[in-house]
Amino acid sequence: MKKPNSNSKPPENRALNLLAASVDVEAAPPEGEAQKLRRFTMTAYTGGAMQLVGWRYPVVVDLQGLQMGRQRRPILLDHTRDVDFVMGQTDSIAVMNDQLVVAGQVMGDSPKARQVIALNDKGFGWQASIGARAEQVEFVAEGKTSIANGREFAGPVNIARRATLGEISFVVLGADDNTSAQIAASADQPRGTEDMDFTKWLESQGFSTDALNENQTKSLRAMYDSQATKPAEPAPSPAATIRAEAAAEAKRIAAIRKVCAGKHGDLEAQAIEEGWDTTRAELEVLRASRPQGPALQSGKPLQQNVIEAALCRRIEGMTEERLARWYDERTLNEALSLGKYGLHALMFEVIHAAGRHATPGIVDGQTIRTALEADRSLRAAAGGYSTISLTGILSNVANKSMLAAYNAVESVAPLFCAQRDVNDFKQVTRYRMTGQGTFEKVGPDGELKHAQLTEESFTNQIDTYGKIISLTRVMIINDDLEGFLGIPSILGRQAALAVESAVFTLLLSNPSSFFGSGNKNYQSGAGTALQISSLTTAEQLFLDQTDKDGKPILLSPAILLVPTALKVTAQQLMTETRVNETTTADKPKPANNPHAGKWQPHASPYLNSQGISGSSATAWYLFANPADVAAMEIAYLRGQRTPTIESSESDFDNLGMKWRGYFDFGVAMQDFRAAVKSAGA
What is the DSSP track for 175-191? Predict the structure, then answer.
């Protein structure tokens, strides 16, 4: 099966593997008789709605719009285009009673072909599946109806109004519970039937009327009627045959040249040389002419981007606005048409891309192994890069799920911490240059004095934080995409919380008396409760900070950081121009608020968290703008400021896939002059 469909903008030129009704194969001729090619008959499609794997809603192929082309179509096993899976070819294809009926000869002699024949001889009932390309699909919405194949179909349903028949396959299991097959009892018989009645014709073809069910009898009767109305034609002469073949070849070449229109010389030459039919030539030209969007310019094929976008739409909380940052409009529209695309659809897509086969609709351990092997072969064939990759697509989607959750966390730490990059995991030292003295008056001789620089250093060092993500066999079989995407989403949130926790744990530990009387950036006592007067005192401490020479550095606060218990108070102090306060003696104070609008108020539950040493529900802080001078720093490895997910091969005993999610960062205190702490009590 190929990609799923949706309830909007059904895609064209999509593959349809339609499991249909019945297959009849003749038994082997008795010993001693000449070995003749055995015949088969198939009710290849009954004209009804098919619930196909990978399609969100049932699919109906309108037989009136089915282009069948030549009567000789290949007969395969399980749609596998390999010589070992070739069973034979048709010599009769017809639409009868709104059903597609085909007949032909079994020609294959490979082990696979012999296995199919052997199972038939033992009474196994094979079913049929046609391979067709949907070129025009009509979506019938819920509550509406449409007519096809002589019957009415109620939506939601997809009707392929135009499709082109490709090959036809023997399959083990069809989509119709009433499917059956009858094995003929004799070898090939003469085709002339105009002087026979239906019963005699059945016997001449090796069928027993008592062993046929109603559907088989109906299909064979339609074929008999079709053949009986055609007078036997004399065999053409060798010269006539040569002329006919030459004319057919000339028509094929002319049709191919018309399709290529002089714009695809390489394709035209290849099509003529390899004997392509017009249908394949049209498909290859369409692929070569397909417009390319921005996603292709980044080196990723559109098909993979469409699949990724469809899977990203399943991420909980994912918005169209965020998707638009990653994918262009065309990619998003095509992803929307895929509907609820899941793990099963992706696995079958990878299997088919690698030219392998898995039973449609069945996902078990063998299907998982086939998908993983197909993924490895695709990547190996492309030198480590493939246009479609199971692990690659899931890694990208998992990364986006983790990134969405990471960015959704309302982090406070980056607002008052500087964010910088380091090249490795070694301890890094940063220097703050301070000038000794100020500009001096230039003397009569015009000589300028040399300024001297002193250094103040601050260190930081990053570490790695991470976890393993697994897509288990149970998740795969259950098609539990949400369950899988929930894991990186949780890790993304945990990564953001890890940074937040590291920053506040370090802040509250007050290393080396960062906030203390020696640094003149700490005040305590009853008068330091968050109010106008304590803000005034804290601001003065901030403004009075000096360099090593005792000279003012003219640094002002920009952020007011408080515990959640003081959030409302901080917001009022920063927005209200008049605030009514009283002293402990209940005496009124001036109502004017000189600090309104000065600083950005932010609250964090980490400041009053009982699980962190040094927490307080009353202490609050003033911080400088970290882009100017930073009191704290968050360091990241080489610019990677979000967590990362990478794919990893699973162990032999784990039938699934694994990814590792990790984040490299470190936090450290920096310049004490850029912050003031008030105990609030």
Answer: S-TT-----BSS-----
Q: Residue 612 has which token pair?
A: 């962190």
What does the buried/exposed string (b/e) look like for 273-311 if buried means 16 or more CB atoms within 10 Å of the residue's CB?
Answer: eeebebbbbbbbbeeeeeeebebbeeebebbbbbbbbbb
Tell me the three state secondary structure of residue 365.
Answer: helix
CA quadruple 264, 269, 274, 278: dihedral, nearest 10: 50
To 10 degrees, what angle do helices 238-260 and 278-289 make? Answer: 10
Which residues touch 520 (CB under 8 Å, ≥6 apart)?
A: 541, 544, 545
Tell me how many degrees the CA angle 671-556-669 measures, rounded to the nearest 5. Answer: 15
| Burial category of 616 from C-beta neighbours within 10 Å (exposed 0-12, middle 13-18, buried 19 and up) | middle
Q: Is residue 67 within 8 Å of residue 165, measured between CB atoms?
A: yes
User: Of the candidates 680, 670, 454, which has an alpha carbon nearest to the alpha carbon of residue 563?
Assistant: 680
How high is the pLDDT of residue 343? 86
The enclosing H or E element of 102 equals strand 99-106
- Give 494: exposed, middle or buried? Use CB within 10 Å, 0-12, 13-18, 19+: buried
Give the global pTM.
Answer: 0.54
Q: pLDDT tens digits, residue range 634-657?
A: 999 988 998 888 776 555 556 677
Q: What is the largest CA-CA distance in the chain?
A: 132
Instruction: Please report, to the nearest 10 degrees, the dihedral formed by the alpha carbons of residues 315, 321, 326, 327 taken in order.
Output: 100
CA-nearest of 74, 68, 130, 132 to 107 is 74
| pLDDT: which is higher, 125 or 11 | 125
pLDDT score for 294: 28
Please report which helix (H) or strand (E) contains residue 246, including its range: helix 238-260
CA-CA distance, 88 to 91, in Å (whole number)? 10
Q: Does position 250 have pLDDT exceeding 90, yes or no? A: no
CA–CA separation, 515 vs 411, rounded Å? 23
Instruction: Indicate the pLDDT class of residue 435, thresholds 50, 70 and 90.
Output: low
Residue 302 has pLDDT above 50, yes or no: no
d(CA 594, CA 678): 19
Instruction: Kindly state the helix (H) or strand (E) to which residue 43 belongs, with its residue range.
Output: strand 38-45
What residue type is assigned to position 584 of the chain? T
Cα 599 to Cα 185, 413, 535, 604, 673, distances in angstroms = 94, 16, 11, 16, 17
Q: Measured at the alpha carbon of residue 335, what is the angle toward residues 329 and 338, in degrees to the nearest 5?
A: 150
CB–CB of 5/59 below 8 Å?
Answer: yes
Backbone angles phi, psi at 25, to 5 degrees: -125, 135
Please, are residues 477 and 647 in contact by the beta-carbon 8 Å criterion? no
**How many residues appear in the chain?**
681
In this model, does residue 235 exceed pLDDT 60? no
Return the SS3 of 402: helix
Q: Which residue shows structure tokens 């469809």?
A: 310
Residues 6+ apart with CB under 8 A from 172: 78, 126, 127, 359
Mean pLDDT of the chain: 78
